[in-house]
Design brief:
The complex is a heterodimer of chains A (97) and B (134). Chain A is mostly helical and 97 residues long. Chain A contains five helices and no strands. The longest helix of chain A has 20 residues, at 34-53. The termini of chain A are far apart. Chain B is α+β, with helices and mostly antiparallel strands and 134 residues long. Chain B is 57% helix and 9% strand. Chain B has helices spanning 2-30, 35-42, 62-86, 90-104; strands spanning 46-48, 54-56, 111-113, 119-121. A four-stranded mixed sheet of chain B has the order 2-1-3-4. In chain B, a hairpin with a 5-residue loop joins β1 (46-48) and β2 (54-56). Classes of the chains: A mainly alpha (97), B alpha+beta (134). The A-B interface holds A 71, 73-76, 78-83, 85-90, 93-97 and B 29-34, 71, 74-75, 78-79, 82, 85-89, 91-93, 95-97, 99-101, 104-105, 132-134.
């Protein structure tokens, strides 16, 4: 049977090729027709969502002062790692410590 | 011409000897604190802060202020070097060394800063350390 042989010689099946093509259109091809339209759709959706919410946004000032913790720069696990380095820096520069 | 070559050699050798001498003198001076610094510590004019630098317990004289500022600049340079080598921030390196300085390098009678920011005098009992000190 010839059609059967031909099908066996194709390295990929037709549905697979179609799938690959569709994936390519959706992801890789920036100038294709699908992606720009998706962007437009998403933008439109966002606009609609934003406009539907705009009527009921409430902002309340906090009654407590805002405290910013300046010690956030110090990481505990790093302090443990610096055990040896701090010892050496004192020993090697004892005139300034 | 031969004489001047010899002279050159001698001058070079003398310069080399001087350089070696200076290096030896420099390294032996490294081990000791400046007497003025040691005195300011012992008198409680200055103390170890929790952040790894020296601070003034009372309003300092211009001489003491200059001394402390100089030492703190040198400390920061060393902290920066070590922090870079260990993938830490300068603040982390300074803080870690500060913990050690308060714990191990303050003698009884010298001042150190408690976690609440107040100045304490070191005595025989263990110093008050920041909870983050390992």
């Amino acid at each position: 049977m010839i059609p059967c042989d031909r099908q066996m010689n194709i390295p990929f099946s037709l549905p697979k090729a179609r799938e690959d093509y569709m994936r390519h259109r959706l992801t890789a091809d920036g100038n294709g027709a699908i992606r720009p339209n998706m962007t437009k759709g998403a933008f439109l959706f966002l606009c609609l969502a934003a406009s539907s919410l705009s009527g009921c946004v409430q902002v309340q000032a906090p009654d407590k002062p805002i405290v910013i913790n300046l010690n956030i720069a110090i990481r505990q696990e790093v302090l443990y790692r610096l055990d040896q380095a701090s010892k050496e820096v004192i020993e090697e520069n004892s005139e300034i410590f | 011409m031969a004489l001047s070559e010899k002279m050159k050699d001698r001058i070079e050798m003398a310069a080399a000897a001087l350089l070696i001498g200076a290096a030896v003198a420099g390294s032996s001076a490294m081990a000791q604190r400046d007497p003025a610094y040691q005195q300011a510590r012992s008198e409680g004019l200055i103390g170890e802060k929790t952040d790894g630098y020296l601070g003034f317990v009372s309003t300092p004289s211009p001489a003491v202020r200059a001394l402390v500022e100089d030492l703190n600049i040198k400390r920061k340079a060393k902290y920066t070097e070590e922090a870079l080598a260990n993938g830490a921030t300068v603040e982390e390196m300074a803080f870690r060394t500060g913990c050690r300085l308060i714990k191990e390098r303050t003698a009884p009678g010298e001042k150190y800063q408690a976690p609440d920011g107040s100045w304490k005098t070191r005595d025989a009992s263990p110093p008050l350390l920041d909870v983050r000190c390992p």
